[in-house]
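Researcher: Good morning. I'm working through a list of sequences from a screen, and I'd like to move beyond sequence-only analysis. For each chain I'm collecting a predicted structure so we can compare shapes side by side. This is the next one on the list. No need for commentary yet; just the structure.
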Amino acid sequence: MRSVRSIAMIFLSLLMLPAFAAAQDDAGNVRISFSVKPYPVLRGELRFRDASENGILEAGERGHILLTIANQGNGKADSTLVSLVPAAVPYGVHIEEIPAFHGIDAGGSITLEIPVQASDDAQSGDMRFHAEIRDSSGILLVQTDPCVFAVRQQARPGRAPLDRRPPRVRLYAFDDEQAIVTSDSLGEVILTTASKLTIRGEASDSSGVAIVYVNGLEAQPTLRPGGLGFEKDVLLTFGDNLIEIEALDPYENAGIETIRIRRMPEDGGSAVPKEMQQLRNQVFAVVIGISDYEHQGITQLQYADDDAQSFADYLQRPIARGGRGVPRENILLLRNEEATYRQIRYALFEFSKRTVRDDIFIIFFAGHGTSDPLRRDLYYFLPYDSDPTSLGSTALPQADINFALNNYVGAGKVIGFFDACHGGAVSSSLARRDSEDSVSIGRFLYETASAREGRLLFSASEVYEKSHEAKRWGGGHGVFTWYLIEGIEGAADRDADRFVKLGELVDYVSDRVQRDTENQQHPTAIGNWDRSIPISVVVKAAPPRN
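Model: Good morning. Structure tokens for this chain:
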């Protein structure tokens, strides 16, 4: 029985090891080897060094907090976040930004020198704090022992003047994908369907900030270059919730900021603004950008594929971050060699059939378009594998797009953005984009957009014009696409209601493109469409975070 127990214990011990491999040598002996997945083990140590090397930070003196992080494990430590957590900060002491670093190899270590400055009017006291090292998901890996050093004020007669100014409180934009900032008749309000949100911000004061409360509960503090950072989770009831943030300095001056958060049910309800209800309509999009064409006879473009990528990125970005929140499976992105004749036809005639009446269907095309050199009334968009000597069988005629948008797309609203022919002639064997070519484009837009209601086709240029692209527009874009995305992200919000409507977007893009090309390019919008349709939510920008 004892032998059986011993064998069982050995077997269980082997099961607890990470991994092993067995082999048999020529003599029949069994060799077992074990492997352990490498992982980092971090240790941290804090110490203070001042210029005079007496361990005291004098008023007007500059020193350094030295944070040594050692990796005693057998794997590299990546994506670590460092913060200093204060327990006591005398007036007039300012800690500057923590230097960035990029990982620590196994067996290695780094020492971060964090500048700390005492102003000329700094007050005496003990500086107490510790460091926290977390991974990218916020999990605490290491908390150092506390570091303490003395701060000594300058000897001077009289007392320091009493500070009577309250701290300043600033809030960051919410990073919860379910929260957006908008306004109603009572002012600014944050809309969410979540039961809990994290309030984040920064409080600053010339005398320093002692504590921050959120709805009467102390928030978790973090030292920042400009003051005291804070964050606190708040629970929300349905309806409007008033959240009060109060920051106190050492003289008990109080700076107060109040925000209003409206928690709504998942199904929306009547409290949701009509713009938000429309933004929840399901969106399907075909996004095409071709810079590199297969046929050597077609002039290559520079930035059409980047334009398509930027537009797709906007569509996928969550609404709370200024995007459209379109699921990845609802977007068909075709760039360069992906945008073949077959794939584009699939997008228009098969992918588009997923849409229903309440949906919005968006088509974006950046690339070459041209008319048939022998039949100027026939206009084509050129896929990646087009042959300029055989347009009829390798290019996409306008009639096919008309037919697809009006017969295969089930969505009640169709929006088309066409930034075609960025840079002049397609090739020597194809027609230049002259007056006849442009008339074909205009006819295509008119025939497609006027066939049914709820259609907007927005072209980058008017008749007789070329569409321009250059590096000066966002580092490399077509001017039309550059201002299209800039407008969607908030620049077009003329009435400052935090929603960019389709009419505002068309007006903004038209104005900016005309001005920036010195009236050489005039975007054209054609169709029977509602100017008040919201296209995006404008999110307030957050200050930079360490």
